[in-house]
Design goal:
The protein is mainly α. It has a single domain (10-185, 200-384), classed as Up-down Bundle (Growth Hormone, Chain: A), CATH 1.20.1250. The protein has 15 helices and no strands. It has helices at 10-26, 33-40, 45-73, 77-95, 103-112, 117-127, 133-185, 207-220, 227-235, 243-268, 270-290, 293-322, 328-357, 361-377, 385-388. Helix 1 (10-26) packs across helix 7. The protein is globular and about 50 Å long. The relative contact order is 0.17.
Length: 389
């Protein structure tokens, strides 16, 4: 007799709603972020890479710290609602920024809000089984992207009427609503007793976990931020006013494919879908290097949407399964820290290469690193930590 599908819990649906709201607000800003930084505030590509790279690094550090202390203190919820609160406050700060150096503290606060990631993902992993973990992470990513689509459409329709300042102020409201959802509808759950775990270390984790980590770090060291894709499109002839539409296109693709990719990973395994995500990034790089004009831009943003749709749900599900269940938040946070710290030189280096050698060179470097990451990932023997604990 066929087993019934595991039900999605109320808490996972609450997380999905909070993710939708937060990304609604954040993605009112992201489509116009590179133009805001480079045109309104007058920064060059190296500065854009620095600001984006700092943001990515802070994401990783905050997730590692929150993951570690979430396990140590056996508390998850406080890190989640505080993270959403930081996001809302940072957008208020963006609204009053007049010079690009002022962005840095608010960018740090914004990305520190990602502290919610590891504790939330640990709860989701604990509430899931091998039969629905990919689906649950796919649901969260789908709602992230759906919120992003709504935020982008809001920007497209309201930017000319509101201007940057009022749009940024409006973008803060959904994150504050996310805070309320977590406070009122998510209960603190008991966490398994912590093993002896001094500091954030991967040495006691499985060989498979370490290979996935190295593959991810290698890939991240060449995977610069989406801002470069939008500026690339601008340089290929797309008007600045059309860039939010391109951002909308890849976000919509990611939204539509996240849940199917998550379900596919449940059926055929995490590793094949992870490899597929990296292959889609290769298509991004190849399109930028060898194609030109409208065809290149369309190919880039379709491939990038597929890349995002496949990578986010399977990456988290994969890491969660390879980590010991009682150390999931620490392992997820430490993993995100390592990956994100690699993103700082990725975006900064891409900006320097762009300014010095031209806009295609960052794609060439990224292409080589992605191929190397796929070679590393091919050595992983997939297994779930729960099966052997």
């Amino acid at each position: 007799m066929e087993k019934s599908k595991p039900k999605t819990s109320t808490e996972i649906r609450t997380f999905a709603a909070a993710s939708f709201l937060n990304d609604f607000g954040s993605d009112m800003i992201y489509p116009i972020w590179p133009i805001f930084v480079t045109t309104v505030l007058g920064a060059d590509m190296s500065v854009l890479g620095l600001v984006d790279g700092i943001g990515d690094a802070i994401v990783s550090i905050s997730q590692a710290v929150s993951g570690y202390f979430s396990d140590k203190w056996q508390r998850r919820k406080v890190f989640i609602w505080t993270g959403y609160l930081f996001g809302g406050i940072s957008r208020l700060g963006y609204a009053f920024t007049k010079f690009w150096p002022w962005l840095i503290p608010f960018r740090i606060l914004d990305r520190a809000g990602k502290m919610r990631g590891a504790p939330r993902d640990a709860i989701v992993a604990d509430l899931s089984t091998d039969r629905n973990r990919g689906r649950n992470f796919g649901l969260l990513r789908m709602m992230d992207n759906l919120g992003a689509v709504c935020g982008i459409l809001t920007t497209i329709f309201l930017l000319n009427y509101l201007g940057y300042q009022h749009l940024f102020l409006l973008a803060a409201i959904p994150s504050f609503l996310s805070v309320a959802l977590i406070l009122f509808f998510v209960k603190e759950r008991p966490v398994a007793k912590l093993k002896v775990f001094k500091g954030i270390s991967f040495r006691h984790l499985s060989r498979n976990f370490q290979i996935v980590l190295w593959a991810s770090v290698i890939f991240a060291s060449g995977a610069f931020s989406y801002s470069f894709l939008l500026i690339f499109a601008k340089n290929e002839g797309f008007a600045p006013a059309t860039l939010p539409m391109l951002y909308l296109a890849f976000t919509a693709i990611a939204s539509l494919t996240s849940l199917p990719f998550g379900k596919l990973a449940d059926r055929i395994g995490r590793k094949p879908v992870f490899l597929l995500a990296l292959f889609c990034w290769i298509l991004v790089c190849v399109s930028a290097i060898f194609l030109n004009g409208f065809v290149a831009i369309i190919a880039i943003f379709i491939a990038y949407g597929l890349h995002q749709g496949a990578l986010q749900p399977v990456q988290k599900a994969f890491v969660a399964e390879l980590a010991p269940p009682d150390l999931r938040a620490s392992a997820l946070g430490g993993y995100q820290m390592a990956v994100g710290l690699a993103a700082l030189p990725a975006s900064l280096g891409a900006g320097i290469l762009w300014d010095t050698f031209g806009m295609t060179i960052p794609f060439v470097v990224s292409l080589g690193l992605t191929i190397l990451a796929m070679i590393f990932l091919s050595f992983v023997k997939t297994e779930s930590a729960e099966k052997y604990s």
